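SAMPLE LOG
Freezer: B-3
Tube label: C17
Construct: single chain, 275 aa
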Amino acid sequence: MKSQDAISNAIRELLESGAKAILVTLVNAPGIESIDPKVGSKLIIKESGERIGSLGNSTLEEAIARHADAFLRGRDEARLLNVEEFASEILALRGISVLFEKIEPEPGLIICGAGHVGAALARLAALVGYRVTLIDDRAEFVNRELFSAPGEHNVELVLADDWSQATGAAIGNGRGVSVAIVTRGHKQDEDCLRAVVAAAPDYVGMIGSKRRTNIVLEKLRSEGASDADLNKVRAPIGLDIGAVSPEEVALAILAEIVAQRRGGSGAPLSSWRRR
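STRUCTURE (predicted):
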């Protein structure tokens, strides 16, 4: 019971902090006396390499730890693997099956600007499964009546007295968070981007022409923002899909956010046929 409590507490702390880890469960260990009594046992491996729990076999745990980083960087949320799939050289562990599951924060999207594009992006992201926060300094643009359809009730609406403070508060520690800056002007863009640079979320993009985005980036650079931080800003935001309408622009933005999160290239899936 103590081991189970430790695992449960660790999972809760990881989710609260926004950190990532892997939960590994021993599913099957046929004919291996030293492991069989431990079937169902669990092991957590954090990004830092710290481990919580045990599977009852140090050799197995070391093999899993070596594979942990590759699984964290992959796209699978969960996968059942035989040990020989990631540690074929360890003959004594053949036949053992383990379930890998990612522990990571629910993906969050902070949208600065509730105009046509921002509102369309909020609706689309909520449909895809993002935890959405929509920020604007105009009360009529973050009116709940505008987001009352099924699936839109969970969109958090924030009326900003101060763009930087509202954006920073919404981002929190930045883990699992993407930020789309789609405000109506340079001043609002600058205020939001100041908060974003300080918080270092997983993704940040800013709408606008090359000229407009360069003006904003240069302003922050003149205030001391580092090139390393500013180079992380995807501006103009989104993938080139020829978007015209607000809904199409929102789709282009969300496509880039998903690609960044999942490690996608944004290339056509059919490109292999043309090589």
